[in-house]
């Protein structure tokens, strides 16, 4: 029964050997039959010799070496495997000696893929309102400044109207200031002409079309009164010598002239003061209007309203759309959550969307206390990542944070790394194996992983004995790393072994075992 079970377990390898042997032209059913006949002949000879003499162990022992010696002329010893060198290339056979070098055991940590927390945005509305438009769907890729959601908000509408009114008030204040400045310039020119005592007819003609407000009337009235008093004094002075008028009348005329002159000069000073005051007030009104506009504009900016929307406020053309509050994408990313629908009431405390940039992800891993000494060498270094979903691909991540505080419950320290995810193969929530350089095991014998074969729970390699001969050699293996497998015992550093193509030899070995049984 054990022989039958052993044969059944070896049957898949025998079948593979037969197929490969047919391709290589090395193993044929005739060879197996001849070998089986040879085995039966040796068995018959043994039984014949044992029946001739039953108590001569020396003769039996001496016959066996003779049989083996005779067999060596046509085939290899029973434990050797033959494969002609002409078939090595087709079988993929490669031979090399084990390497003796420093063996570093990598440390594998269980990590988790998470969102890049520096490139994630939870979108909250800054105002209360009703969702009027939703322009994106779950999972949609968006670009920076793309429109996401439009909210109808009374607060936004009122703020825009206030800004519109403030702008109108600013325009009015600027017009008043400019007008007041123009009046002041014209009035100063008039005052300069009056101080030069130009004839009133020339003054009236030269300043008739200039804007001065009531300053013209007030200045000309006082100037005309002064001119009349001066004319009276001049007339009386001309007739005083003739005795036609008394000196008292002249003195009265002179007093009236001086009074009118003082009134005229006071009027000029009063008007100059009033002009300066009006200009100051006009400038102040402009500043206040500009401040009001700046405050209202800033309020809208604080609420997240775009600058273009602020500049284009026009209640007449926009109508009720003036209350629309658009929310735009802050950067290129993907919509990973969507919590809003049309006509839904939203508040500043309600998250409506989440945008994440998935072109890069974070890798989080917990480093156990025994591996803490490795952390000092990991900062800003690159570590390897593997995942079962992509067995043939190795990812790279750069460490940017190694924690300083150990978790008292898990006895671990947190490690963070960032990995490029342009192809979107790493999904947040995935588990990965984080491979970091480990501790040196010292000098050790190392062979490639493909050189190690396994059968019935035993690991072995094929040693090249020379020419076309190979032999199985059981080995005890140690840990593995990127370079290969550590060999604790079983082979020596100077023994050539098969590092590629061992499956062919393994199939032949199992075929011979089945033939012997």
Walkthrough of the structure:
- It is a single chain.
- This protein is an alpha+beta fold.
- The protein folds into four domains: 2-101 and 444-516, conserved putative lor/sdh protein from methanococcus maripaludis s2 fold; 104-117 and 358-438, Elongation Factor Tu (Ef-tu), domain 3; 119-146 and 329-356, RNA polymerase II/Efflux pump adaptor protein, barrel-sandwich hybrid domain (OB fold (Dihydrolipoamide Acetyltransferase, E2P), Beta Barrel), CATH 2.40.50.100; 162-300.
- Residues 1-74 have low confidence and may be disordered.
- The chain is 43% helix and 28% strand.
- A hairpin with a 4-residue loop joins strand 20 (476-480) and strand 21 (485-489).
Number of separate structural domains:
4
Stretches where pLDDT falls below 50 for ≥5 residues?
Answer: 1-74
Averaged pLDDT: 82
Strand content: 25-35%
CATH top level of the largest domain is Mainly Beta
Please estimate the helix content. 40-55%
Structural class: alpha+beta
CATH topology of the largest domain: conserved putative lor/sdh protein from methanococcus maripaludis s2 fold
